[in-house]
Amino acid sequence: MKIEHIAIYVNDLEGARSFFINYFDGISNECYHNKATGFKSYFISFESGARLEIMNKPNLVDYEKPLNRTGYAHIAISVGSKEKVDELTEKLKSDGYEVVSGPRTTGDGYYESCILVFEDNQIEITA
Prior knowledge:
With 127 residues, this protein is of the alpha+beta class. It has helices at residues 13-24, 82-94; strands spanning 6-9, 27-28, 32-33, 40-45, 51-56, 75-78, 98-105, 111-116, 122-126.
């Protein structure tokens, strides 16, 4: 058994798509658009085989997303090395994204940083 994909609703579909393509080398399919409902989505595929579906539809409710909440916490993406974690963290920071923590080695042994990205969603970058 495996998780087939993870899905997330976003307000800025094209911005989220560009984020994963530009920073994580994601490969996107063509936009699916259901004209009857207004639903749109992209699947972003990564080198490991993991897939992320980013979606949008009319009349989404956008609640506040505090860091300490139940439900969705973050998406963790491994970039392969501590050096790459450091480099990508610095690039995201210089591009205006907020570094929430790290880079650091956590108590459970991960080398990671956590970044607050588009629409107050958190990405964890791991080695």
